[in-house]
Amino acid sequence: MEFRRPDGMERITTKALAEVYIEEQIAALREQVGDKKVLLALSGGVDSSVTAALLIRAIGRQLVCVHVNHGLLRKNEPEQVIHVFREEMNANLIYIDATDRFLDKLAGVSDPETKRKIIGGEFIEVFAEEARKLDDITFLAQGTIWPDILESESGIKAHHNAGGLPEDLSFELVEPVRILYKDEVRVVGRALGLPAAMVDRQPFPGPGLGVRCTGAITRDRLEALREADAIVREEIGKLPATPWQYFCVVPDIRSTGIKDGKRYMGWAVIIRAVNTVDAVTATVPEIPFPVLCTMRDRILASVPGVNRVLWDLSEKPVATIEWE
Ligand code: XMP
After folding, report:
1. Domain residue limits, the chain
2. What is the C-alpha to C-alpha distance for residues 264 and 286, in angstroms, rounded to an integer?
3. Is residue 211 a contact partner of residue 116, using CB atoms and an 8 Å limit?
4. Protein residue with least CA distance to atom 12, ligand 1
5. DSSP-H helix ranges across 94-195
6. Which among 97, 117, 156, 180 could disulfide-bond with 151, CB atoms 3.0 to 4.6 Å apart, if both were Cys?
C-alpha cells in the first residue's frame, strides 16, 4: 500500500494533534497487521524508536524489535535502548552484541567508503540471520519518513531505509511515520512517552563512531573516542542553545606529549560542533571559551591515550561535517 502525505495536511505541532495521529495509526496498524508478527531493526534513532513505540501501542508483543550493537554506538546507547523498550515499554526486544564481528571485519581497513560498505553490509547480514531464525514474521516495519520519500523520488539519494534485505526474506512493509516530517516525528514520539534524550537526539550517522575514528579503527582509539564523545555531549548539551550536531573525532595520528616527566605519543581529540538546516551547508557556532576549557580538562584528565584537544573551526563547505 502506498501512503502519501495528503496535500495540505495540517502540520503536527501539538500533543493534541499528535494524539489524533496516534489513534488513527493504531487503528490502521491493527487492521493491516491483524494477528501477524512484525519485525523491526531498532537502532535507537528517532525514526525507528517512534516507529517501535507506535507499533507497541498498537500490537504489543506481536512486534519483534532487533537491536544490533555494531560496536560503534555512543556510550550507554545500547543500554538506553534496552532499558526504554524492554523495561519501560515491555517490548519484545532481541539484543545482539555483534561488536567483535564488526571490529574484526574492519581491522586494518582505512578507506572511508570501504568502512561504510563493510558496516552497512554486515548490518544487513546480522539482521537477516536473526530474521531467518524467526519463522512466523509477515511484516517488516521501517522508520521511513516523508523527506526520505521526497529525496528518493527526486533522485537526490536512495533513502537508506529501503529494505536491502536478501531475496529469501520478503516481507510486507509497515511504515507508520512515513507521511511525517522529522519535527512531527519528534512531537509524536513525545506524545508516546519516549524520553527526551531519545526524541531530541542529534543526528548520528549509520556507521556511527566508525567514521569518527578515522583510518583503520583500533579498539583502544575507539574507546578513547567514545569516552571523549560522552564528555563533549554532556558539556555542550548544557548550553542554553545546543548546536544542531556536536561530537568529536579522534584521527589516527599521534603527537608528542609529556607524562610523568617522560615523552610519550598520544592521540588528539577534535571537538566538532555545527549548525545547519539541511546538512548541505553548515556553520560553526560560538562555544564559550570556559566550556571549551572544561572539555579539555575533563578529556585530558580521564581519557587514556589522549594528550591534545583541538576545536574544528571549519565550515561546510569547504569541509564536510564528518571527517570521513
Ligand atoms: P557530511 O559529513 O556529508 O554529513 O557533511 C552530513 C550529515 O550526514 C551525516 N552522515 C551520515 N549519515 N550515514 C548516515 O546515516 C553516513 O554514512 C553518513 N555520513 C555522514 C552526518 O552526520 C551529517 O549529519
Report:
1. 15-199, 212-311
2. 32
3. yes
4. 205
5. 99-106, 112-133, 146-154, 182-191
6. 156
Residue pLDDT, tens place only, 140-197: 999 999 998 888 888 765 555 445 788 888 899 999 999 999 999 999 999 999 999 8
Residues 6 or more apart in contact with residue 177 via CB below 8 angstroms: 47, 50, 51, 54, 143, 144, 145, 185, 188
For residue 282, which atom of ligand 1 is closest to its CA?
5
Distance 301 CA to ligand 1 centre (A): 30
Does residue 37's CB lie within 6 angstroms of at least one atom of ligand 1? no
Distance of alpha carbon 218 from its chain centroid, rounded?
21
Q: What is the pLDDT of residues 37-75, one digit of tens each?
A: 999 999 999 999 999 999 999 999 999 999 999 999 999
Residue 322 Cβ contacting ligand 1 at under 6 Å = yes
Query: For residue 135, what pLDDT is reported?
Result: 83
Angle at 216 between CA 74 and CA 275, to 5 degrees: 45
Q: Which long-range contacts (CB under 8 A, 24 or more apart) does 108-114 make?
A: 108/216, 109/216, 109/217, 110/215, 110/216, 110/252, 112/211, 112/214, 112/324
Which SS3 state, helix, strand or coil, does residue 179 take?
A: coil
Cβ–Cβ < 8 Å for 67, 94: yes
Question: What burial letters (b/e) apply to 53-92, b meaning 16+ CB within 10 Å?
Answer: bbbbbbbeebbbbbbbbbbbbbbebbebbbebbbeebebb
Phi and psi, residue 141, nearest 5°: -90, 140
Q: Which CATH class is domain 212-311?
A: alpha beta
CB of 42 closer than 8 Å to CB of 67? yes
DSSP structure class, residue 210: G
Atom index in ligand 1 nearest the CA of residue 319 equals: 5
Task: Classify domain 15-199 by CATH number.
Answer: 3.40.50.620
* 302 to 116, 134, 221, 231: CA distances (angstroms): 30, 43, 14, 10
Whether residue 19 has its Cβ less than 6 Å from ligand 1 = no
pTM of the model: 0.93
H/E segment holding residue 230:
helix 219-236
